[in-house]
Amino acid sequence: MPVDDRDAEARRALTARPRGDDARTTGTAADPVDPAGRSAGSTDGSSGGSTERATDGSSHGSTSGSTDGEVGGWAGRVMGVLRVATHVVGVNALVLLGTLAGLVVLGLLPALVAGGRLLARLADGHPSDHLWHDFWSAYRSGWRRTNLLGAPVWPVGALLSVDAAVVRFVDGPLAAVLAAGVLALGAWFCVALLTLVAVARRYDETLPRTWRFAALFPLLSPGTSLAVLVVVAACTVSVLALPVLAPLVGIALPLLAGGWLVDRRLGALDARGA
Q1: pLDDT value for 26
Q2: Mean pLDDT of the chain
Q3: Which of 142, 140, 157 is nearest to 105 (CA)?
Q4: Nearest Cα to Cα of residue 32 among 42, 21, 22
């Protein structure tokens, strides 16, 4: 039977193949070879090592970069408390300066509204980095409007002062009735004033609507009004116990806490009406 020459050439090629190639060929089932000639084991080792090094380096860099600018733990908390305390003391001093700059009568309401604006930013977690500039900018821009809004404050405050003076000279059951009336009127006046300050910096309504809302707020929101009175009473007792607190936080602290309570209620009313 004739033999094809091509078969003979194929047999010679097979028998001439080196043993190293045989070993490589027989090892492909357990250790496959990629087109570049690298085995799976060598690829895994090299790529795994480089991947781990890259991952470690990148994670270390990102971690160190994210923590370099932050102070964590108790030191961060202490710094946060000191920052808030400094902010409150600074706003209190600015409110006093603003009140004196307007000769009290024309400076109290603009100073309260400007200071309340800065304290509201502090309560929201975005304190001002330029207290002096931001305070006086708000003070000047809202001076006329806030004085118009605060016009009824002075006659009501004068009436309260007269009633409190009269109670001292009255005896018997009438004195108790007058004292209760003065106390109730003073509580209403305190809540209405804090509401007026919050409304003046949040909304741009007409004078009659703003006055009406501030006057009715203690009756329409008794829970918030009670919380505001508790905060104001606590601040008053603290100042009476430690008079040194009066020039430091005597105005800013009740303005911060009471304003935050009123802001929460106004935000809930806005969301309900939206």
Answers
A1: 42
A2: 81
A3: 157
A4: 42
**Quick one: average pLDDT of 44-52?**
43
DSSP of the chain:
----HHHHHHHHHHHTS-HHHHHHHHTTTTS-B-TTS-BHHHHHHHHHHHHHHHHHHHHHHHHHHHHHT---HHHHHHHHHHHHHHHHHHHHHHHHHHHHHTTTTTTHHHHHHHHHHHHHHHHTT---S-HHHHHHHHHHHTHHHHHHHTTTHHHHHHHHHHHHHHHHT--SHHHHHHHHHHHHHHHHHHHHHHHHHHHHHH----HHHHHHHHHHHHHH-HHHHHHHHHHHHHHHHHHHH-GGGHHHHTTHHHHHHHHHHHHHHHHHHHHHH-
What burial letters (b/e) apply to 9-30, b meaning 16+ CB within 10 Å?
Answer: eeeeeeeeeeeeeeeeeeeeee
Residue 54 in tokens: 């890259």
Tell me the per-residue pLDDT of 72-81, one tens digit each, with 9 for 90 and over: 688 878 888 8
* Residues with Cβ within 8 Å of residue 21, at least 6 apart in sequence: none
Q: In whole angstroms, how far apart are CA 144 and each of 139, 149, 153, 200, 223?
A: 9, 9, 15, 12, 32
pLDDT at 171 over 90: no
Residue given tokens 């305190």 in the structure block = 190
For the segment 159-169, the average pLDDT, to the nearest whole number, is: 90
